[in-house]
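Input (structure):
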């Protein structure tokens, strides 16, 4: 269990980097010239991209970003993102928590990977909580330590200090960059905001486990003793490790942000 910084990179990025992240549409189709000596070749229309379930234009925060200045190119967007994040969290937090190069591509890849089994640490431009996973007990009685939740205190303070509406408005403002990076990642007809909402919903579905969570250590790293918990995604396992109370605070911020980036409310 050495991936604690993943969830913090992503959740905080939702409110600050994603809030500051993005790029505009860059792809332009090219129609080859038709040879003069040959009859025109019948064309077959490419299948239309599926309609977005959560179009960003319908998000409440889109109204706040309507008068934004032109965006930088994706490859040149880091400085603009650093400035936007600094406005949201302050310059000191920017220095303390973030490592900011290739921000948009890393953010998009991290979001896409959270519901999967693993998230590569090389794509994470954020520093995680210090120290190792705290463990109490020995042998088959090992559990996540009672003091492990304290490791996340600074990150939670930062997370809860960010205004969700301002973060979402910045997300909408820079959204075209995120959309470009998502399509470049390998989803030529994909809609990044749909993926974002799906990942938030996936994290919100993480079970709240009360009481100590038992661990086993089959090799070097600890694993959850409960097979159902161990089979869960990287994102859900990271929420489980931080403890039910901390996970609940993260979920509250995710719900706030979700409301700002979609016109479709959570089901009752």
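Output (sequence):
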């Amino acid at each position: 269990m050495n991936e604690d910084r993943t969830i913090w990179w992503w959740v905080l990025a939702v409110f600050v980097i994603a809030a500051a992240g993005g790029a505009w549409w860059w792809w332009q189709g090219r129609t080859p010239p038709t040879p003069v000596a040959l009859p025109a070749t019948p064309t077959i229309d490419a299948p239309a991209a599926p309609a977005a379930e959560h179009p960003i234009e319908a998000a409440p925060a889109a109204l706040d970003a309507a008068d934004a200045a032109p965006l930088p190119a994706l490859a040149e967007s880091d400085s603009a993102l650093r400035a936007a994040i600094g406005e949201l969290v302050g310059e000191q937090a920017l220095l303390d928590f973030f490592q900011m190069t290739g921000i948009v591509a890393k953010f998009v890849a991290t979001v896409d990977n959270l519901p999967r089994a693993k998230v590569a640490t090389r794509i994470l431009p954020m520093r995680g909580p210090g120290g190792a996973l705290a463990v109490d007990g020995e042998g088959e009685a090992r559990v996540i330590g009672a003091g492990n939740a304290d490791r996340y205190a600074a990150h939670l303070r930062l997370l809860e200090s960010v205004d969700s509406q301002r973060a979402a408005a910045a997300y909408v403002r820079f959204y075209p960059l995120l959309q470009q990076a998502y399509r470049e990642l390998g989803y030529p007809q994909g809609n990044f905001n749909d993926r974002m909402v799906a990942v938030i919903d996936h994290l919100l579905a993480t079970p709240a486990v009360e009481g100590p969570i038992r661990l086993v250590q089959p090799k070097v790293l600890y694993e959850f003793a409960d097979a159902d918990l161990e089979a869960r995604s990287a994102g859900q396992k990271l929420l489980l490790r931080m403890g039910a109370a901390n996970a609940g605070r993260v979920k509250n911020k995710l719900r706030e942000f979700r409301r700002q980036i979609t016109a479709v409310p959570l089901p009752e």
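Notes: The two ends are 33 Å apart (CA to CA). Residues 244-261 form the longest helix (18 residues).
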